[in-house]
Amino acid sequence: MAGPLILAVDTDVLVSWAMAGSPRHAAAKRLFDQEVRRDGNSLAIAPQVLHEFLHVVTDPRRFEHPLSMPEGLRWCRRLWGASEVVPILPAPGVLDRTFELLERLRLGRKRILDTALAATLELAGVRRLATFNPGDFRSFAFLDLTPG
Hints:
By secondary structure, the chain is of the alpha/beta class. It contains 6 helices and 5 strands, in the order βααβααβααββ.
């Protein structure tokens, strides 16, 4: 039997998990319960995911009860420091790899952030990504997408 794996998480999954009013809150909670609690896997989180998470969960246009900035920062700090989390910092070649993927796959400006995340994960050796938006990452054959 294989040992624990590393599962990267996209911003949408973290937001759904943190925000009880989110339509996918239960699905995100189930995913984390299964992956971390039951299977003992680690979660890979990149800084850009936490930046976007903080932007989204504090936005009153997106949520009736958004987190305050101090609450959002507490969430980010707890996540980044959690024993189940493997922090994934962008490698020196991530910018070049992002540009290469954008050019080779002919992706437009709305795909820059997802492409940068994919490049960050690829260079870190992380192959599994949980996302509720698989269409944003299907272009990247090196990622195994796990539905949230």
